[in-house]
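Collaborator request, handled under Task 6.
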Amino acid sequence: MQLLFMRVSALIAALLAIAGCAEVDSSVREHFPTVYNTPVVHSDIDELLDFGNNLANMNTASRTETCRSLVKRQKDEPEIGVLLHLLVGRLLSDACGDIPRILDEIAGIPPSSLGDERMRHLVAIHSEALKRVNSTSKKLGSLERKQKTVQNVLETKDAAGSKKEESRLLREKLEAIRSMEKQLDETSEGK
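C-alpha cells returned to the collaborator:
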C-alpha cells in the first residue's frame, strides 16, 4: 500500500513538474519576440492572411524585427513570396520597407505569377491601401512643413511684438522718472 502511495505521489509530482514547465515555457515565449523566419517559397492567400494576422497580434518590437528580417531577405534574394509578405506587412509596420519601392516591385509582377483570382484581388487591395497611406504621409509631411513655417513666422512676430511692448514699457518708465524729477525740481524750487 505504501509503495502504491509513493508511486502515485511520484506520478503526481511528475505531472505537476511537466505542467509547471509548460507554464514557464509559455510565459517565456510571451516575453521574446516571434520572428517570422519560415522560408517563403510561394505564398498562397491563406498563408498571407495568417501572416498578416500574426503580425497584427505582435508587439511593435516583434513586428519591427520580423519586417527587418523580411526586408533583408528580399534584398539578398528577391522572391515574389517575400515581396507579398512585405506588401501585407507594410500596412502594419513602417519597418517593412519603402512604400514606393514595394509598389514598383509589385507592379512588375506578371498577374499570372500571382496564382488565383483571390490572390490578385488581395494584392490589388493592399496596393491601393499602400498608395493611400503613401499619399496621406506626403500630405502630412507637407502640412508639418507648413505648420513649422507658420510657427516660425508667429514666433518672429511675437518676438517683434514683445520688443515693441518692451520699448513701450521702457518709455513709460522713462516718462515716470522724468515726471518724478520734475516734481522733485518743483519741490526743491519751492523751498
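The cover message to the collaborator said: "The radius of gyration is 35 Å. Residues 21-41 have pLDDT under 50 and may be disordered. Please let us know whether this matches your experimental observations."
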